[in-house]
## 1
Amino acid sequence: MTADQRYDIAIAGGGLAGLSLAKLLAGEGMRVLVLEKDNYPRHKVCGEYISNESRDFLERNGLLTKIDELPQINRFELSFHDGKKRSCQLEPGGFGISRWKLDAHLCEKARQQGADVNENALITGIEEDSEGFVLNTKSGQNFFAKRLIGATGRYSHRLFPSKADQIAGKGKWFGVKYHLECDFPEDTIQINLFDGGYAGISRIEDGKYCFCYLASAKWLKKYSGDLERIEQNVLGQNPVIKKHLVESKVLEGPVTTARFNFIYRTAVQSPVLYLGDTAGFIPPLTGNGMSLAFRSAAVAADLITDHFNGKKSWESVETGLTKYGDQYLGRRIRSGVFLQNLALHPSTFFRQTLATGMFVFPPLLKKLSKKATGKNF
Ligand SMILES: Cc1cc2nc3c(=O)[nH]c(=O)nc-3n(C[C@H](O)[C@H](O)[C@H](O)COP(=O)(O)OP(=O)(O)OC[C@H]3O[C@@H](n4cnc5c(N)ncnc54)[C@H](O)[C@@H]3O)c2cc1C
């Protein structure tokens, strides 16, 4: 193995958590490697709305600047299954940016800071020895690193197992995204409920809109994976969604993501640290997975930097990240799943009662939207 294939830190997965951590650690003088199975730019399934809870972090660390030039989103609208709508001010609000643009931008930032980001580098195996880790890639190249971070997203069970995977079982949800040209307010994120799922729409860069939905895998089975029929027969039951489907022009998509679950897995599988969705995946309706990916990178970067500078043992790094995972992330995911279950309750009577509650008591909607967001970091 040649010397330039040896790293202080290897990060498996070049998504939001992996790339932002890479930039932060490279900035502290570490030799950092990111292995990403695909390439940049590319479309990913995501609602592409970033909560302002991560805005300070992104700007302060030079990960994303000029956020003011992106669409600013500060209103929330919820439509129920029958199309009735309720809206409120969104606090602290957020902004829209496509994953096409964001991931490629973060990759560039990580590289400028000195991290090696290898694209088309699917990790096929990991071997651990007393010195560190050897990462095997599909192309046959091997890399060595003293420390390893798992940031391969919501399908991490093969490379980075966790006990929680067995409990969660087969993925119960799937997701679809389009970029649209449509007539819709720039400052609003609208979430539209339908039987077994919800569809969000909000603005991203260049005047485009991201239309993204998440639905129960039962619909895939019932309609043999035919998205057009699912959209017509299931999503189209909500008149608000039907209007979007009929009146908008599709610019990009569909991009799809297959079966997944919403669970807290773990933040540490000693001696590997798990970040972003690898640690746990929060429902998009009631959480901000992108901000949580950035938050986990922020927490891990401080801990790893202290270790690198001889101020902390690796055991204390693990203890610090476990605390974040168990006490913060796990709690947010559990409350997100609870709220999502309420919104998607199968009983029509229950849903109508919830909808009526929001009409009779408008502050409830604001309270719920606030619950989905964490403090700035
Ligand atoms: C339908 C839907 C809508 C969403 N909407 C929103 C939203 O509006 N706002 C929000 O904040 N969050 C949203 N999310 C959540 C958000 O997309 C994720 O939480 C976020 O992308 C997590 O970032 P990450 O870095 O952990 O993972 P990812 O961004 O998924 O990155 C993981 C990376 O690892 C790579 N990888 C995987 N396996 C390997 C391997 N073996 N070798 C090398 N590389 C590998 C992948 O290619 C990928 O690039 C949504 C999610 C879904 C499914």
## 2
Amino acid sequence: MKQNVTIIGAGLVGSMMAIYLGKRGYKVDVFDKLPDIRKESISAGRSINLALANRGIRPMVQLGIIDKVETLLIPMKGRMLHDVEGELQFQSYGQKPQEVIYSVSRGGLVSLLRDEAEATDNVTFHFKQVIDSIDYDKNCINLIDKTEQIHPHKFDILLGADGAASIVRNSYENHGVSGVSSELLSHSYKELTIDEDDNGPNRYKIDKNSLHIWPRGEYMLIALPNLDGSFTVTLFMPNKGEISFESLTSKEAVNQFFSDQFSDVLDLIPDLAEMFFENPTGILGTIRCEQWNYKNALLIGDSAHAIVPFHGQGMNCGFEDCYALNALLDEHNDDWQKVMDSFTEVRVHNANAIADMALDNYIEMRDSVRDPKFHLKKAIAFELESRFPKQFVPRYSMVMFHHISYARAQSRGEIQFGILNKLSDGIESVEQLDLVKAEKLVSEKLSVLSEHDLS
Ligand SMILES: Cc1cc2nc3c(=O)[nH]c(=O)nc-3n(C[C@H](O)[C@H](O)[C@H](O)COP(=O)(O)OP(=O)(O)OC[C@H]3O[C@@H](n4cnc5c(N)ncnc54)[C@H](O)[C@@H]3O)c2cc1C
């Protein structure tokens, strides 16, 4: 007899894990405090669309749902940089045709994952259910339903997939589990929309197959395409200071700021200032947690590791959690105690690594991309990857296009950073690269990657 698994949170990660467990024959109940987006029109909450990459795609292939997911995807081949004058510069993410990332709608993807979980016939979703308390000794959660009644629900295994503000993680702390740290970023974000083009030759007002960035040093604007021809635009900027959310207090100030810094966007969003004040400002932060399991419970996804969105990896990392958890269930023959101990051991340091790299990437996106030296180093990195494909893989590519662990991508990335600094010193173009020195540095400092790392 397989145990009953209860998942708290029917978000992206909870819904994907429900498919895995339903397919394995577990009886799964998933509880969420919100209504079902498939039945009631509710806002998808933060980030209407997200970037999906290899780590998120692999479990979809394994689950046999990738063909359906593909109908929701828009490939983005690189960054389209917009300078203050409105000049464009395209920078490819990778060198191979398959090295692209995909824009996907949060609401569309979560709906599809829920449908697929239900299709296993072993998964039941319960919406508008809020956790009141968790009794880890009696394996019981108390839920408050839509009629405000408290009702108990027994579980064998409890998965906390309830996001960054996880109640499950907080309840661990109430039971004496320590090692949780949370760090708010001093920058926040606001989403705006570029509507579809009713008059143009195609429905998109700017290039559909790019992730657009307006880097401005301390702050930036980005835009990802949606299937309906619109773009979701996100402004990331400091909370306080001369140029900050705090300083933009009137429509005039917002229009002036956009006219000075992002005039091409002002042209694309006629009602920008109204939208700016109608839409909420979202906070950003990093949550690290040393212990993901407690008794019969385990944290997955953002509840275990919320990260800032600048590497586009929060969801991808959560999907990789699902893949890893399923692999451990195979390895340990569904012995959950062993699985939960191993899962924490395997995943925590990797989650910490992507949390760090996501913070680094904010500086790269908003600032470094404006520096010609950055572009030279990127060109050298591509050249080294072409010449030494099993040793030098740019850090961005390791994270987005391969399955090498995040922790190894981070440590190899640091070594590569040193190599790129040495090789770019004193030259102005990739043609001037000292190939003898490059070969020596790469062979001395970087081990050969396995087929698995490079897959
Ligand atoms: C602005 C922004 C942009 C982002 N862009 C990207 C990107 O491009 N690529 C990427 O990979 N990631 C991105 N992310 C990160 C991504 O959104 C998260 O990593 C992902 O949503 C985590 O999924 P989850 O299921 O763990 O948590 P969530 O999506 O937060 O889902 C948690 C679920 O739990 C439910 N819940 C919460 N509390 C309770 C409770 N007490 N009782 C019952 N239910 C509860 C919620 O209603 C929700 O349905 C971005 C995040 C932000 C903020």
